[in-house]
Amino acid sequence: MEATLNPPAAKPPAKSRLRTWGPLALVAVLVALPLLPLPNFWIIQLNYIGIYTLPVLGLVLLTGVGGLTSFGQAAFVGIGAYTTAYLSVNFGLSPWLTLFVGLALTGLSAAIIGGITLRMSGHYLPLATIAWALALYYLMGNLEALGKYDGILGVKGLTLFGLEVGQQRVFYAVVWTFSLLACFAVIRLLDSRSGRAIRSLAGGSQMAEAMGVNTLRFKVGIFVLAALLASLSGWLFAHFQRTVNPSPFGLKMGIEYLFMAVLGGAAHVWGAIAGAGVVKLLEDQLQVLLPKLIGTSGSYELIVFGILIVLVLKYLPDGLWDFIDRRLPRPQRPVDWRDAPDLPARAKPAAGEVVLDVQAIRKTFGGLVAVNDISFQTRAGQVVGLIGPNGAGKSTTFNLVTGVLGLSGGAVRFRGEAIGGLSSRAIAERGVSRTFQHVKMVPDMTVLENVALGAHLRGRKGAIAAMLHTDRAEERELLREAERQLQRVGMGDWMHELAGNLAMGQQRLLEIARALCADPALLLLDEPAAGLRHKEKQALADVLRSLRASGMSILLVEHDMDLVMDICDHIVVMEFGTHLMEGTPAEVQQSPKVRAAYLGTEH
Ligand SMILES: Nc1ncnc2c1ncn2[C@@H]1O[C@H](COP(=O)(O)OP(=O)(O)OP(=O)(O)O)[C@@H](O)[C@H]1O
After folding, report:
1. CA of 397 relative to ligand 1 center, distance in Å
2. 393 Cα to the center of ligand 1, angstroms
3. In the prediction, which pLDDT does 1 show?
4. pLDDT (tens digit, 9 = 90+) per residue, 512-531?
5. Cα–Cα nearest to 486, from 451, 457, 515, 453
């Protein structure tokens, strides 16, 4: 069944382009500032803000978008700074060479540290970042070769085409070129196949893995990228300050970077500049003002920062940039994919062919046998219903088929291949796609982007291609497919809406469109009618009928008996983890055993 595409979306109203102009205005201001007769003090302050923007941008990606909290960003700034200082002072190497050595060293350290710590979740990850941040700090402070706590003095300034970069206006041009390029690269990254995968990480790995996203690889990837941005900042810092010692790379600074990200707006790229700017300027003013007020010198600004963190978390939890951003109209993505070619599709099973063959599967949780030797089959072009009272073991069966849970016994074959024991990502790769009992989506991505996440495995372009914008042809193919599947479930008019704004019925259709984007041969729907109104259920039944007509094999777990009896070709009934009976809807309806199971009477 092919759907026709909507006419091109209307052009966004003029005022909605404010967001597109906003960053350009920011760039224009940054270009104009050094041309103004500003005192050098202010240029130097702006240079610090540019240097701080880079590690904070890394935290926007890692913490704000990816949901991974790190206190260790300053340590990576230190690796970049110490590498260039050590090599340029002791071996006379060019800073332009040591930059790459620093990046390589940082990337390697981050890949090793990330590979170990990013498997942790909850509080363990931030605690682990504190541990290795402290370890790196004490390493820098105790190594003889790095000058212990005195550090390395006499680092030379940068030169560019024989020109002294110095610490003022030319340095300003260099630092802000790097910072702005990094901002635009991260924006491009987030608006891509890899970006959608990264944006799905914060919601937990189950949905992302079911869409074929290798979540650990993406977590390590953004951790390394954040560390590389920090390393670049360290390189600039060393040649700006002309000296390095451990104190700017300790845990205190790691916390300060995190504060900059939270204050600026941890999920917004431009929030990195806002956060770095406000904290740096505030810190300078407070360092002068507070000792005068209190009468003794000391780091009193830290007390103010502590109070500010509490206030920001309470009143502006999404930061300063979010406060502005929410007041600007949201620009609509220009529709440029309608003439893109089709994505390659997998060979589908012939009508009536056995797609899923479940043989005596079993799952035990301690002493409880949640699924007890359940067997059934689904064929191409057939809707099989899996029903039973609460706690019967339906969701567990579903999770065994999709690889979320491991089998305690039995076998699952998909198109003849044993898939029991494979990860949910590997099962998704083979053509099994699913929806969730409790809808899992990325609320601050558009409907179209959420659905395009389902086509993750059908694209190849990675993060570097996204940052260089060489992924656009593939991106158009993915977005075209996403729109096609949205049309297929009747949601084409909603593609530009934020997924978080949808009603429950639409969210469930979004999940079906996302699952279809993977080009599956078997679709598993976990209670798709839960929370839907009558009309929405009818729309859902129409969609399922048309999918069946297109040859799709569907396994449906559902409590809504009207829908089940209306749509299913074959029904498997479970009770207390066991197979109660199976048959056509009419046979199931007439079964006294089934009625007794639902009414809770003996049979
Ligand atoms: N991770 C788990 N650990 C321990 N017990 C579990 C786990 N998951 C499910 N169970 C138990 O297994 C049994 C079957 O649960 P399951 O969620 O599969 O039933 P269900 O038929 O899907 O129920 P519902 O219709 O309420 O969703 C229940 O007794 C449940 O408490």
Report:
1. 9
2. 5
3. 39
4. 999 999 999 999 999 999 88
5. 451
What is the C-alpha to C-alpha distance for residues 458 and 474, in angstroms, rounded to an integer? 10
Between these two residues, 374 and 599, which has the higher pLDDT value?
A: 374
pLDDT classification of 466: cutoffs 50, 70, 90: very high
Contact 370/573 with Cβ under 8 angstroms?
A: no
The pLDDT assigned to 599 comes to 67
Distance 368 CA to ligand 1 centre (A): 10
Q: What is the ipTM of this complex?
A: 0.96
* Residue 370 near ligand 1, beta carbon < 6 Å: yes
Q: If you take atom 9 of ligand 1, which residue's CA is the nearest one?
A: 396
CATH of region 349-431+522-528+553-603, choose from 3.40.30.10, 3.10.180.10, 2.102.10.10, 3.40.50.300: 3.40.50.300
pLDDT at 559 over 60: yes
**Rounded to 10 degrees, what is the CA torsion of 311, 312, 314, 316?**
140
Over 60: is that where the pLDDT of 355 sits?
A: yes
574 Cα nearest atom in ligand 1 = 21
Q: DSSP states of 471-521 as a string?
A: THHHHHHHHHHHHHHHHHTT-GGGTTSBGGGS-HHHHHHHHHHHHHHT--S
CB-based contact 195:187 (threshold 8 Å): no
Residue 453, SS3 per DSSP: helix
- Residue of 387, 395, 397 with the most ligand 1 atoms within 8 Å of its CB, for mutation: 395
Q: Whole-prediction pTM value?
A: 0.91
Residue of 396, 404, 437, 560 to test ligand 1 pocket, by largest number of atoms within 8 Å of CB: 396
Q: Alpha carbon of 433 to those of 1, 93, 484, 487: distances in Å?
A: 18, 54, 17, 18
Question: Which of 510, 497, 481 lies closest to 445 in space, CA to CA?
Answer: 497
Q: Give the chain's largest Cα–Cα span.
A: 92
Q: Are 358 and 375 in contact (CB under 8 A)?
A: yes
Nearest CA to ligand 1 atom 17: 395
Run of H or E including 75: helix 73-91
- Give the ligand 1 atom nearest the CA of 396: 18
Atom number of ligand 1 nearest to Cα 393: 18
Residue 391 in contact with ligand 1 by CB distance below 6 A: yes
Domain ranges of the chain: 39-251, 349-431+522-528+553-603
Q: Cβ(394) to ligand 1 under 6 A?
A: yes
Whether residue 110 is predicted with pLDDT greater than 90 in this model: the reply is yes
